[in-house]
Fold this protein.
Amino acid sequence: MTAPFAVPVTVRGYETDTQGHLNQAVYLNYAEHARWSLLQTAGIRQADLLARDVGPVALETTIRFRRELLAGEEVEVTCAFEWGEGKTFRIHQLVRKADGTVAAEVEAVGGIMDLEARRLIADPRELFKDLATDPALFGL
């Protein structure tokens, strides 16, 4: 099995809370950044999705906080897709410190919405296969 897609992020001081650690809401930003970076690396631009009148939607997100992150720390945010048979998919993500310690686990359920019909499309895997120049990054 290949390693999941990952992007580096540096924790910025303005992202910390009054305790001096990364604000809990910022973990979502890091996870979203990794997801969009994966799409872009796989060859899918936001403009490509809009041209098809579709867009990704978050249906559920769970964050498990494991260790605090402080300003200046370098982390890696991973992103791995898990495909089922229906309209949704799962995204498994880790926020990992430079020493390998897992700071947070992010699990999400997403789908692809038809922006005109305002409904999820039937098979998001096929859309990703069709649009991506490197569908293997999605495990396809």
